[in-house]
Design a protein that fits this description.
single chain, 122 residues, mainly beta, Immunoglobulin-like, 5-stranded antiparallel sheet
Length: 122
């Protein structure tokens, strides 16, 4: 009986597809001091799933800086969302001409996907 139960549990785990995360933004050269909107989506088997998002900006020398949510001072760290997450970043004037990497970690259950998106604010 226990082997049948473990077989059914294993079949249920195998039926779950991989986590698929996507990122969309209006380009790799955002204008400084204005809102640069972006969207992160998480799906499994083509259907939206509950996930958590961590967003960081990585500078050229390897420093990591948390991205804050909207106009708050709360960092986007393990931020829960269901299927779609929308926000914006205002790139400061000091970032003009500097290649930066927006690093997004989307996790759901035991799966995680890392998205890296290079931008050079203008």
């Amino acid at each position: 009986m226990s082997s049948l139960l473990s077989l059914l549990l294993a079949a249920g785990v195998a039926a779950i597809g991989p986590l698929h995360a996507t990122f969309a933004a209006p380009g790799h050269t955002p204008k400084t001091n204005t809102r640069w909107n972006y969207v992160v989506r998480a799906a499994r088997d083509g259907k939206p799933v509950a996930a958590k998002l961590t967003a960081q900006i990585v500078d050229p020398i390897g420093g990591r800086h948390p991205v804050v949510f909207d106009a708050t001072k709360r960092p986007i760290t393990k931020w829960p969302f269901n299927g779609t997450f929308r926000d914006y970043i205002i790139w400061p004037s000091s970032s003009r001409g500097v290649p930066l990497t927006l690093k997004l970690v989307v996790s759901s259950g035991r799966s995680a996907t890392v998205i890296r998106y290079v931008v050079t604010p203008r």
